[in-house]
Amino acid sequence: MNASSYDLRAANTARSRTSVRVGALGAVMAGFILAASPAHADRIEKHFSVQSKPKITVRNSNGRIQVKAWTRNEVLVAWTNASGKSVVETEEAGNRVEVSTRMSEDGVSADDSKTDFEITVPVESELSVRTDSGNVTVDSVHGDMTFDTVGANLQLSDVDGYMVVKTIDGSLVCTRCSGKLEANSISGNVQMIQPTLDSLRVQTSSGNIFFDGSFLSRGIYIMKNFSGTIEVHFASSDSFDVNATSLKGDVINQATFKPDTHGSSHPASKWGHSLSGTMNEGHAKVELSSFSGTIKILKRD
Amino acid sequence: MNMQCEQFEQILEQQDDGALPKPALAHLEACAACRALSADFGAIHDMALELGAEVIAPPERVWVSLRNQLETEGLIRDPQAAPRSATQASQGWWAVFQRPAVAGAFLGLVLAAASTVGYWSNFAQSSAHYAQLAPQQDTSSVPSADSVFKEEVLTVGSDSIPGLQRQDTAVTDSIRRNLQIVDNFIAICEKSVREQPDNQMAREYLYGAYQQKAELLAAATSRSLTGGLQ
Questions:
Q1: Does B168 touch chain A (CB under 8 A)?
Q2: Chain A closest CA to B163's CA: distance in Å?
Q3: The overall pTM is greater than 0.90
Q4: Which end of chain A is more exposed for a tag (fewer CB within 10 A), N or C?
Protein backbone atom coordinates (compact mmCIF):
# COMPACT_ATOMS: atom_id res chain seq x y z
CA MET A 1 0.00 0.00 0.00
CA ASN A 2 1.24 3.46 -0.75
CA ALA A 3 2.61 5.42 2.16
CA SER A 4 0.49 8.42 1.28
CA SER A 5 -2.67 6.38 1.67
CA TYR A 6 -4.48 6.21 4.93
CA ASP A 7 -7.76 4.86 6.25
CA LEU A 8 -10.41 6.85 7.99
CA ARG A 9 -13.08 4.80 9.65
CA ALA A 10 -16.13 6.82 10.50
CA ALA A 11 -16.51 5.64 14.05
CA ASN A 12 -19.94 4.37 14.88
CA THR A 13 -18.60 4.10 18.41
CA ALA A 14 -18.74 7.88 18.61
CA ARG A 15 -22.44 7.62 18.09
CA SER A 16 -22.72 5.15 20.96
CA ARG A 17 -20.85 7.50 23.32
CA THR A 18 -23.37 10.21 22.59
CA SER A 19 -26.17 7.79 23.20
CA VAL A 20 -24.89 6.89 26.64
CA ARG A 21 -25.36 10.47 27.78
CA VAL A 22 -29.08 10.42 27.27
CA GLY A 23 -29.64 7.74 29.82
CA ALA A 24 -30.30 4.09 29.98
CA LEU A 25 -33.08 4.05 27.43
CA GLY A 26 -30.93 5.91 24.98
CA ALA A 27 -28.08 3.51 25.61
CA VAL A 28 -30.27 0.53 24.91
CA MET A 29 -31.52 2.13 21.71
CA ALA A 30 -28.00 2.97 20.66
CA GLY A 31 -27.10 -0.66 21.24
CA PHE A 32 -29.83 -1.72 18.86
CA ILE A 33 -28.61 0.75 16.27
CA LEU A 34 -25.05 -0.52 16.51
CA ALA A 35 -26.17 -4.10 16.25
CA ALA A 36 -28.06 -3.26 13.09
CA SER A 37 -25.09 -1.43 11.58
CA PRO A 38 -22.10 -3.73 11.57
CA ALA A 39 -18.66 -2.16 11.69
CA HIS A 40 -17.91 -3.13 8.08
CA ALA A 41 -20.77 -0.91 6.89
CA ASP A 42 -18.54 2.04 7.75
CA ARG A 43 -17.51 4.41 5.11
CA ILE A 44 -13.88 3.92 4.33
CA GLU A 45 -11.73 6.51 2.58
CA LYS A 46 -8.39 6.45 0.89
CA HIS A 47 -6.48 9.43 -0.43
CA PHE A 48 -3.93 9.31 -3.20
CA SER A 49 -1.64 12.16 -4.13
CA VAL A 50 -1.35 12.40 -7.89
CA GLN A 51 0.05 14.68 -10.53
CA SER A 52 -2.06 16.25 -13.24
CA LYS A 53 -4.11 13.98 -15.51
CA PRO A 54 -4.01 10.78 -13.47
CA LYS A 55 -5.56 7.57 -14.74
CA ILE A 56 -8.16 6.05 -12.46
CA THR A 57 -9.45 2.53 -13.03
CA VAL A 58 -12.45 1.18 -11.16
CA ARG A 59 -13.72 -2.38 -11.26
CA ASN A 60 -16.79 -3.11 -9.21
CA SER A 61 -19.27 -5.84 -9.97
CA ASN A 62 -22.25 -4.39 -8.15
CA GLY A 63 -22.97 -1.02 -6.62
CA ARG A 64 -23.18 2.66 -7.29
CA ILE A 65 -20.14 4.51 -8.58
CA GLN A 66 -20.14 8.30 -8.35
CA VAL A 67 -17.24 10.21 -9.80
CA LYS A 68 -16.92 13.95 -9.40
CA ALA A 69 -14.14 16.45 -9.89
CA TRP A 70 -12.26 18.85 -7.68
CA THR A 71 -9.32 21.15 -8.18
CA ARG A 72 -6.88 19.27 -5.93
CA ASN A 73 -4.15 17.00 -7.25
CA GLU A 74 -5.55 14.20 -5.19
CA VAL A 75 -7.85 11.25 -5.68
CA LEU A 76 -10.25 10.43 -2.91
CA VAL A 77 -11.85 7.00 -2.97
CA ALA A 78 -14.61 6.34 -0.46
CA TRP A 79 -16.71 3.23 -0.26
CA THR A 80 -19.27 1.35 1.77
CA ASN A 81 -20.14 -2.32 1.74
CA ALA A 82 -22.97 -3.11 4.08
CA SER A 83 -22.32 -6.83 4.27
CA GLY A 84 -18.59 -6.65 4.82
CA LYS A 85 -18.20 -9.48 2.33
CA SER A 86 -16.63 -7.36 -0.32
CA VAL A 87 -12.92 -6.59 -0.21
CA VAL A 88 -11.76 -3.40 -1.86
CA GLU A 89 -8.23 -3.41 -3.17
CA THR A 90 -6.42 -0.28 -4.23
CA GLU A 91 -3.16 0.25 -5.99
CA GLU A 92 -1.22 3.39 -6.76
CA ALA A 93 1.68 3.39 -9.16
CA GLY A 94 3.00 6.63 -10.53
CA ASN A 95 0.05 8.59 -11.74
CA ARG A 96 -2.23 5.58 -11.91
CA VAL A 97 -4.78 4.60 -9.30
CA GLU A 98 -6.66 1.32 -9.50
CA VAL A 99 -9.61 0.31 -7.40
CA SER A 100 -11.22 -3.10 -7.55
CA THR A 101 -13.54 -5.23 -5.50
CA ARG A 102 -13.52 -8.94 -4.89
CA MET A 103 -15.59 -11.16 -2.69
CA SER A 104 -14.08 -12.38 0.56
CA GLU A 105 -15.71 -15.77 0.15
CA ASP A 106 -17.46 -17.87 -2.46
CA GLY A 107 -21.17 -17.74 -3.02
CA VAL A 108 -21.71 -14.15 -1.96
CA SER A 109 -25.14 -12.93 -3.03
CA ALA A 110 -25.62 -9.92 -5.26
CA ASP A 111 -26.97 -7.89 -2.35
CA ASP A 112 -23.99 -8.70 -0.16
CA SER A 113 -21.53 -7.88 -2.92
CA LYS A 114 -22.97 -4.40 -3.37
CA THR A 115 -20.24 -1.84 -2.82
CA ASP A 116 -20.93 1.85 -3.34
CA PHE A 117 -18.12 4.18 -4.33
CA GLU A 118 -17.72 7.94 -4.19
CA ILE A 119 -14.61 8.96 -6.02
CA THR A 120 -13.30 12.48 -6.36
CA VAL A 121 -10.64 13.12 -8.95
CA PRO A 122 -8.79 16.08 -10.43
CA VAL A 123 -10.81 17.79 -13.16
CA GLU A 124 -8.39 16.56 -15.79
CA SER A 125 -8.38 12.82 -15.27
CA GLU A 126 -8.58 9.70 -17.33
CA LEU A 127 -11.23 7.21 -16.25
CA SER A 128 -11.84 3.55 -16.86
CA VAL A 129 -14.88 2.02 -15.21
CA ARG A 130 -16.00 -1.56 -15.43
CA THR A 131 -19.08 -2.73 -13.61
CA ASP A 132 -22.02 -5.07 -13.98
CA SER A 133 -24.90 -3.47 -12.17
CA GLY A 134 -25.45 -0.33 -10.16
CA ASN A 135 -25.55 3.14 -11.60
CA VAL A 136 -22.50 5.10 -12.64
CA THR A 137 -22.48 8.88 -12.57
CA VAL A 138 -19.64 11.10 -13.68
CA ASP A 139 -19.75 14.82 -13.21
CA SER A 140 -17.45 17.54 -14.58
CA VAL A 141 -14.46 15.37 -15.39
CA HIS A 142 -12.37 16.29 -18.41
CA GLY A 143 -10.38 13.50 -19.98
CA ASP A 144 -10.67 10.26 -21.88
CA MET A 145 -13.09 7.78 -20.40
CA THR A 146 -14.13 4.19 -20.99
CA PHE A 147 -17.13 2.48 -19.47
CA ASP A 148 -17.97 -1.19 -19.72
CA THR A 149 -21.18 -2.31 -18.06
CA VAL A 150 -23.80 -5.03 -18.27
CA GLY A 151 -26.93 -3.53 -16.77
CA ALA A 152 -25.54 -0.45 -15.10
CA ASN A 153 -27.03 2.83 -16.21
CA LEU A 154 -24.60 5.58 -16.93
CA GLN A 155 -25.06 9.32 -16.44
CA LEU A 156 -22.40 11.67 -17.68
CA SER A 157 -22.77 15.37 -17.00
CA ASP A 158 -20.55 18.25 -18.11
CA VAL A 159 -17.80 15.89 -19.18
CA ASP A 160 -15.33 16.59 -21.93
CA GLY A 161 -13.07 14.15 -23.70
CA TYR A 162 -13.07 11.02 -25.77
CA MET A 163 -15.70 8.79 -24.23
CA VAL A 164 -16.20 5.13 -25.09
CA VAL A 165 -19.22 3.41 -23.62
CA LYS A 166 -20.14 -0.24 -23.90
CA THR A 167 -23.23 -1.63 -22.21
CA ILE A 168 -25.42 -4.65 -22.67
CA ASP A 169 -28.69 -3.25 -21.46
CA GLY A 170 -27.61 -0.28 -19.44
CA SER A 171 -28.74 3.13 -20.60
CA LEU A 172 -26.63 6.20 -21.20
CA VAL A 173 -27.68 9.76 -20.50
CA CYS A 174 -25.11 12.29 -21.58
CA THR A 175 -25.89 15.84 -20.52
CA ARG A 176 -23.77 18.72 -21.84
CA CYS A 177 -21.10 16.33 -23.02
CA SER A 178 -18.27 17.68 -25.17
CA GLY A 179 -15.66 16.01 -27.29
CA LYS A 180 -16.13 12.63 -28.88
CA LEU A 181 -18.54 9.89 -27.90
CA GLU A 182 -18.72 6.28 -28.99
CA ALA A 183 -21.52 4.28 -27.43
CA ASN A 184 -22.48 0.72 -28.10
CA SER A 185 -25.33 -1.15 -26.47
CA ILE A 186 -27.64 -4.03 -27.21
CA SER A 187 -30.84 -2.97 -25.54
CA GLY A 188 -29.90 0.19 -23.71
CA ASN A 189 -31.27 3.62 -24.58
CA VAL A 190 -28.92 6.46 -25.38
CA GLN A 191 -29.80 10.10 -24.75
CA MET A 192 -27.68 13.11 -25.54
CA ILE A 193 -29.01 16.32 -24.07
CA GLN A 194 -27.43 19.64 -25.06
CA PRO A 195 -24.27 17.95 -26.27
CA THR A 196 -21.44 19.84 -27.92
CA LEU A 197 -19.82 16.81 -29.44
CA ASP A 198 -17.81 17.01 -32.62
CA SER A 199 -17.84 13.27 -33.16
CA LEU A 200 -20.61 10.88 -32.29
CA ARG A 201 -21.05 7.23 -33.07
CA VAL A 202 -23.94 5.52 -31.30
CA GLN A 203 -25.20 2.05 -31.95
CA THR A 204 -27.86 0.14 -30.07
CA SER A 205 -29.89 -2.82 -31.18
CA SER A 206 -33.27 -2.50 -29.57
CA GLY A 207 -32.75 0.73 -27.65
CA ASN A 208 -33.88 4.22 -28.53
CA ILE A 209 -31.52 7.03 -29.46
CA PHE A 210 -32.31 10.63 -28.61
CA PHE A 211 -30.19 13.59 -29.65
CA ASP A 212 -31.08 17.16 -28.76
CA GLY A 213 -28.15 19.46 -29.32
CA SER A 214 -25.99 21.33 -31.76
CA PHE A 215 -24.33 19.86 -34.79
CA LEU A 216 -20.89 21.41 -34.72
CA SER A 217 -19.19 22.49 -37.89
CA ARG A 218 -17.17 19.60 -39.34
CA GLY A 219 -18.75 17.27 -36.83
CA ILE A 220 -19.73 13.74 -37.80
CA TYR A 221 -22.75 12.18 -36.15
CA ILE A 222 -23.64 8.56 -36.76
CA MET A 223 -26.62 7.01 -35.02
CA LYS A 224 -27.71 3.51 -35.77
CA ASN A 225 -30.08 0.98 -34.27
CA PHE A 226 -31.96 -2.13 -35.23
CA SER A 227 -35.36 -1.43 -33.79
CA GLY A 228 -36.50 1.38 -31.53
CA THR A 229 -36.67 5.05 -32.35
CA ILE A 230 -33.97 7.46 -33.42
CA GLU A 231 -35.03 11.00 -32.60
CA VAL A 232 -32.93 13.97 -33.57
CA HIS A 233 -33.84 17.55 -32.72
CA PHE A 234 -32.33 20.38 -34.72
CA ALA A 235 -32.43 24.18 -34.71
CA SER A 236 -33.17 26.11 -37.87
CA SER A 237 -29.68 27.62 -37.69
CA ASP A 238 -27.97 24.22 -37.68
CA SER A 239 -25.84 23.41 -40.66
CA PHE A 240 -25.61 19.78 -41.66
CA ASP A 241 -25.93 17.16 -44.36
CA VAL A 242 -28.24 14.33 -43.46
CA ASN A 243 -28.69 10.83 -44.74
CA ALA A 244 -31.41 8.80 -43.01
CA THR A 245 -32.57 5.31 -43.90
CA SER A 246 -34.89 2.87 -42.23
CA LEU A 247 -35.16 -0.45 -43.97
CA LYS A 248 -38.49 -1.53 -42.51
CA GLY A 249 -39.58 1.53 -40.55
CA ASP A 250 -40.54 5.13 -41.24
CA VAL A 251 -38.58 8.33 -41.59
CA ILE A 252 -40.44 11.32 -40.20
CA ASN A 253 -38.96 14.68 -41.12
CA GLN A 254 -39.82 18.26 -40.16
CA ALA A 255 -36.85 19.88 -41.88
CA THR A 256 -36.75 21.50 -45.27
CA PHE A 257 -33.68 20.13 -46.91
CA LYS A 258 -32.16 21.15 -50.18
CA PRO A 259 -30.35 18.61 -52.33
CA ASP A 260 -26.86 17.78 -51.13
CA THR A 261 -24.60 20.42 -52.64
CA HIS A 262 -21.34 18.76 -51.70
CA GLY A 263 -21.08 16.42 -54.61
CA SER A 264 -22.21 13.39 -52.69
CA SER A 265 -25.12 11.73 -54.38
CA HIS A 266 -27.43 9.74 -52.17
CA PRO A 267 -29.81 8.00 -54.53
CA ALA A 268 -32.98 6.93 -52.79
CA SER A 269 -32.60 3.41 -51.55
CA LYS A 270 -34.80 0.95 -53.32
CA TRP A 271 -35.23 -0.76 -49.96
CA GLY A 272 -37.14 0.92 -47.17
CA HIS A 273 -37.51 4.63 -46.53
CA SER A 274 -34.68 7.05 -46.93
CA LEU A 275 -34.02 10.76 -46.92
CA SER A 276 -31.01 12.87 -47.71
CA GLY A 277 -30.32 16.55 -48.09
CA THR A 278 -28.59 19.61 -46.77
CA MET A 279 -29.62 22.09 -44.11
CA ASN A 280 -28.03 25.54 -44.53
CA GLU A 281 -24.39 25.07 -45.59
CA GLY A 282 -24.19 21.45 -44.55
CA HIS A 283 -21.12 21.79 -42.41
CA ALA A 284 -21.77 18.76 -40.26
CA LYS A 285 -22.56 15.26 -41.41
CA VAL A 286 -25.45 13.32 -39.89
CA GLU A 287 -26.11 9.68 -40.69
CA LEU A 288 -29.15 7.97 -39.23
CA SER A 289 -29.85 4.34 -39.87
CA SER A 290 -32.33 1.80 -38.58
CA PHE A 291 -33.43 -1.65 -39.62
CA SER A 292 -37.02 -1.58 -38.46
CA GLY A 293 -37.21 1.44 -36.19
CA THR A 294 -38.63 4.88 -36.82
CA ILE A 295 -36.34 7.82 -37.50
CA LYS A 296 -37.59 11.24 -36.47
CA ILE A 297 -35.91 14.48 -37.51
CA LEU A 298 -37.71 17.14 -35.53
CA LYS A 299 -37.49 20.90 -35.09
CA ARG A 300 -36.50 22.04 -31.65
CA ASP A 301 -39.19 24.07 -29.94
CA MET B 1 15.09 -31.73 -46.24
CA ASN B 2 11.31 -31.95 -46.16
CA MET B 3 9.49 -29.03 -44.65
CA GLN B 4 7.55 -29.62 -41.44
CA CYS B 5 4.08 -28.23 -40.73
CA GLU B 6 5.47 -25.77 -38.22
CA GLN B 7 7.89 -24.32 -40.75
CA PHE B 8 5.10 -24.08 -43.31
CA GLU B 9 2.90 -22.23 -40.85
CA GLN B 10 5.65 -19.73 -40.18
CA ILE B 11 6.08 -19.09 -43.90
CA LEU B 12 2.33 -18.77 -44.35
CA GLU B 13 2.07 -16.23 -41.57
CA GLN B 14 4.88 -14.15 -43.02
CA GLN B 15 3.62 -14.39 -46.58
CA ASP B 16 1.57 -11.32 -47.48
CA ASP B 17 0.82 -12.01 -51.13
CA GLY B 18 2.35 -13.82 -54.02
CA ALA B 19 3.47 -17.38 -54.53
CA LEU B 20 4.80 -19.54 -51.78
CA PRO B 21 8.40 -20.74 -52.07
CA LYS B 22 8.88 -24.10 -53.75
CA PRO B 23 9.54 -26.12 -50.57
CA ALA B 24 6.34 -24.69 -49.09
CA LEU B 25 4.37 -25.59 -52.21
CA ALA B 26 5.76 -29.10 -52.05
CA HIS B 27 4.72 -29.41 -48.45
CA LEU B 28 1.29 -27.98 -49.29
CA GLU B 29 0.80 -30.65 -51.92
CA ALA B 30 1.62 -33.39 -49.48
CA CYS B 31 -0.13 -32.13 -46.35
CA ALA B 32 -3.93 -31.93 -46.19
CA ALA B 33 -3.96 -30.07 -42.87
CA CYS B 34 -1.73 -27.30 -44.17
CA ARG B 35 -3.81 -27.07 -47.34
CA ALA B 36 -6.87 -26.45 -45.23
CA LEU B 37 -5.02 -23.88 -43.16
CA SER B 38 -3.84 -22.14 -46.30
CA ALA B 39 -7.36 -22.20 -47.67
CA ASP B 40 -8.74 -20.51 -44.57
CA PHE B 41 -6.20 -17.74 -44.85
CA GLY B 42 -6.94 -17.41 -48.55
CA ALA B 43 -10.69 -17.27 -48.10
CA ILE B 44 -10.50 -14.56 -45.47
CA HIS B 45 -8.00 -12.61 -47.51
CA ASP B 46 -10.14 -12.81 -50.65
CA MET B 47 -13.31 -11.75 -48.95
CA ALA B 48 -11.63 -8.81 -47.35
CA LEU B 49 -10.38 -7.70 -50.72
CA GLU B 50 -13.81 -8.16 -52.29
CA LEU B 51 -15.26 -5.90 -49.66
CA GLY B 52 -12.73 -3.26 -50.45
CA ALA B 53 -11.79 -3.29 -46.80
CA GLU B 54 -8.46 -3.71 -45.19
CA VAL B 55 -7.20 -7.24 -45.09
CA ILE B 56 -8.49 -9.01 -42.02
CA ALA B 57 -5.38 -10.24 -40.31
CA PRO B 58 -6.08 -13.03 -37.85
CA PRO B 59 -4.00 -12.73 -34.73
CA GLU B 60 -0.59 -14.28 -35.14
CA ARG B 61 -0.68 -18.02 -35.11
CA VAL B 62 -4.34 -17.96 -34.09
CA TRP B 63 -5.40 -20.57 -36.58
CA VAL B 64 -2.55 -22.86 -35.77
CA SER B 65 -2.73 -22.67 -32.03
CA LEU B 66 -6.49 -22.75 -32.12
CA ARG B 67 -6.63 -25.82 -34.27
CA ASN B 68 -4.04 -27.64 -32.21
CA GLN B 69 -5.59 -26.80 -28.89
CA LEU B 70 -9.14 -27.46 -29.93
CA GLU B 71 -8.18 -30.77 -31.44
CA THR B 72 -6.11 -31.73 -28.41
CA GLU B 73 -8.98 -30.96 -26.12
CA GLY B 74 -11.44 -32.71 -28.38
CA LEU B 75 -13.49 -29.57 -28.79
CA ILE B 76 -13.73 -29.69 -32.54
CA ARG B 77 -15.25 -32.54 -34.42
CA ASP B 78 -13.64 -34.75 -36.89
CA PRO B 79 -16.11 -34.77 -39.79
CA GLN B 80 -16.00 -38.55 -39.76
CA ALA B 81 -16.76 -38.81 -36.08
CA ALA B 82 -20.25 -39.28 -34.77
CA PRO B 83 -22.11 -35.99 -34.42
CA ARG B 84 -22.59 -34.67 -30.91
CA SER B 85 -25.86 -33.69 -29.44
CA ALA B 86 -26.76 -30.03 -29.33
CA THR B 87 -26.08 -29.93 -25.61
CA GLN B 88 -22.70 -31.52 -26.01
CA ALA B 89 -21.89 -29.09 -28.76
CA SER B 90 -22.74 -26.06 -26.71
CA GLN B 91 -20.92 -27.39 -23.66
CA GLY B 92 -17.95 -28.08 -25.86
CA TRP B 93 -18.05 -24.58 -27.22
CA TRP B 94 -18.40 -23.01 -23.84
CA ALA B 95 -15.68 -25.24 -22.42
CA VAL B 96 -13.32 -23.39 -24.72
CA PHE B 97 -13.84 -20.30 -22.65
CA GLN B 98 -13.00 -22.08 -19.42
CA ARG B 99 -9.42 -22.18 -20.66
CA PRO B 100 -8.09 -18.64 -20.79
CA ALA B 101 -5.26 -19.60 -23.10
CA VAL B 102 -7.72 -20.74 -25.69
CA ALA B 103 -10.37 -18.11 -25.10
CA GLY B 104 -8.40 -15.25 -26.58
CA ALA B 105 -7.55 -17.19 -29.68
CA PHE B 106 -11.10 -18.39 -30.07
CA LEU B 107 -12.56 -14.93 -29.77
CA GLY B 108 -10.11 -13.80 -32.41
CA LEU B 109 -11.46 -16.53 -34.60
CA VAL B 110 -15.03 -15.58 -33.82
CA LEU B 111 -14.53 -11.98 -34.82
CA ALA B 112 -12.58 -12.88 -37.94
CA ALA B 113 -15.13 -15.51 -38.83
CA ALA B 114 -17.98 -13.10 -38.14
CA SER B 115 -16.50 -10.84 -40.75
CA THR B 116 -16.29 -13.75 -43.13
CA VAL B 117 -19.78 -15.06 -42.55
CA GLY B 118 -21.24 -11.58 -42.42
CA TYR B 119 -20.65 -11.23 -46.09
CA TRP B 120 -21.84 -14.66 -46.96
CA SER B 121 -23.68 -13.46 -49.99
CA ASN B 122 -20.28 -12.82 -51.52
CA PHE B 123 -19.18 -16.23 -50.49
CA ALA B 124 -20.12 -17.86 -53.76
CA GLN B 125 -17.50 -15.87 -55.61
CA SER B 126 -14.72 -16.84 -53.32
CA SER B 127 -15.87 -20.40 -52.80
CA ALA B 128 -14.50 -21.33 -56.21
CA HIS B 129 -11.11 -20.05 -55.20
CA TYR B 130 -11.54 -21.73 -51.84
CA ALA B 131 -12.26 -25.06 -53.50
CA GLN B 132 -9.35 -24.56 -55.85
CA LEU B 133 -7.01 -23.96 -52.96
CA ALA B 134 -8.25 -26.89 -50.97
CA PRO B 135 -9.39 -29.64 -53.31
CA GLN B 136 -9.14 -32.20 -50.53
CA GLN B 137 -10.81 -30.06 -47.88
CA ASP B 138 -13.53 -32.60 -47.32
CA THR B 139 -11.05 -35.19 -46.22
CA SER B 140 -9.30 -32.85 -43.80
CA SER B 141 -10.02 -32.97 -40.12
CA VAL B 142 -9.55 -29.20 -39.90
CA PRO B 143 -12.81 -27.26 -40.09
CA SER B 144 -12.97 -24.06 -42.06
CA ALA B 145 -13.38 -20.76 -40.26
CA ASP B 146 -16.97 -20.27 -41.27
CA SER B 147 -17.98 -23.79 -40.36
CA VAL B 148 -16.49 -23.41 -36.89
CA PHE B 149 -18.28 -20.12 -36.48
CA LYS B 150 -21.62 -21.46 -37.66
CA GLU B 151 -21.47 -24.74 -35.79
CA GLU B 152 -19.80 -23.70 -32.59
CA VAL B 153 -20.92 -20.13 -32.03
CA LEU B 154 -24.17 -19.41 -33.78
CA THR B 155 -25.69 -22.49 -32.16
CA VAL B 156 -25.11 -21.07 -28.70
CA GLY B 157 -28.49 -20.04 -27.45
CA SER B 158 -29.59 -18.03 -24.49
CA ASP B 159 -30.30 -21.20 -22.55
CA SER B 160 -26.99 -22.87 -23.25
CA ILE B 161 -24.33 -21.00 -21.38
CA PRO B 162 -23.26 -23.56 -18.81
CA GLY B 163 -20.20 -21.54 -17.85
CA LEU B 164 -22.19 -18.56 -16.81
CA GLN B 165 -22.25 -19.18 -13.09
CA ARG B 166 -23.01 -15.93 -11.36
CA GLN B 167 -24.64 -15.29 -8.08
CA ASP B 168 -26.03 -12.09 -9.53
CA THR B 169 -29.08 -13.34 -11.32
CA ALA B 170 -29.79 -9.87 -12.69
CA VAL B 171 -26.55 -10.05 -14.64
CA THR B 172 -27.09 -13.55 -15.95
CA ASP B 173 -30.68 -12.71 -16.83
CA SER B 174 -29.51 -9.62 -18.66
CA ILE B 175 -26.98 -11.54 -20.69
CA ARG B 176 -29.46 -14.27 -21.55
CA ARG B 177 -32.16 -11.77 -22.45
CA ASN B 178 -29.85 -9.84 -24.72
CA LEU B 179 -28.55 -13.00 -26.31
CA GLN B 180 -32.14 -13.76 -27.23
CA ILE B 181 -32.52 -10.28 -28.67
CA VAL B 182 -29.43 -10.66 -30.80
CA ASP B 183 -30.42 -14.15 -31.94
CA ASN B 184 -33.77 -12.76 -32.95
CA PHE B 185 -32.09 -10.00 -34.95
CA ILE B 186 -29.84 -12.51 -36.64
CA ALA B 187 -32.87 -14.56 -37.67
CA ILE B 188 -34.66 -11.48 -39.02
CA CYS B 189 -31.60 -10.28 -40.91
CA GLU B 190 -30.92 -13.70 -42.38
CA LYS B 191 -34.49 -13.81 -43.61
CA SER B 192 -34.11 -10.38 -45.20
CA VAL B 193 -30.85 -11.33 -46.88
CA ARG B 194 -32.39 -14.52 -48.22
CA GLU B 195 -35.38 -12.59 -49.57
CA GLN B 196 -33.33 -9.67 -50.90
CA PRO B 197 -29.84 -10.96 -51.71
CA ASP B 198 -28.75 -7.65 -53.23
CA ASN B 199 -29.88 -5.61 -50.26
CA GLN B 200 -26.54 -4.34 -49.00
CA MET B 201 -28.03 -2.70 -45.94
CA ALA B 202 -29.67 -5.91 -44.76
CA ARG B 203 -26.35 -7.65 -45.17
CA GLU B 204 -24.59 -4.98 -43.15
CA TYR B 205 -27.13 -5.40 -40.38
CA LEU B 206 -26.63 -9.17 -40.46
CA TYR B 207 -22.90 -8.67 -40.15
CA GLY B 208 -23.46 -6.25 -37.29
CA ALA B 209 -25.71 -8.72 -35.51
CA TYR B 210 -23.09 -11.48 -35.81
CA GLN B 211 -20.47 -9.15 -34.47
CA GLN B 212 -22.72 -8.14 -31.61
CA LYS B 213 -23.28 -11.76 -30.71
CA ALA B 214 -19.56 -12.40 -30.64
CA GLU B 215 -19.02 -9.35 -28.47
CA LEU B 216 -21.84 -10.31 -26.14
CA LEU B 217 -20.41 -13.78 -25.70
CA ALA B 218 -17.02 -12.26 -25.04
CA ALA B 219 -18.54 -10.00 -22.39
CA ALA B 220 -20.33 -12.97 -20.85
CA THR B 221 -17.09 -14.92 -20.84
CA SER B 222 -15.12 -12.26 -19.08
CA ARG B 223 -17.74 -12.13 -16.38
CA SER B 224 -18.28 -15.83 -15.94
CA LEU B 225 -14.93 -17.51 -15.52
CA THR B 226 -14.56 -16.68 -11.86
CA GLY B 227 -18.02 -15.41 -11.19
CA GLY B 228 -16.93 -11.81 -11.32
CA LEU B 229 -15.24 -9.15 -13.30
CA GLN B 230 -11.95 -10.01 -14.92
A1: yes
A2: 15
A3: no
A4: C
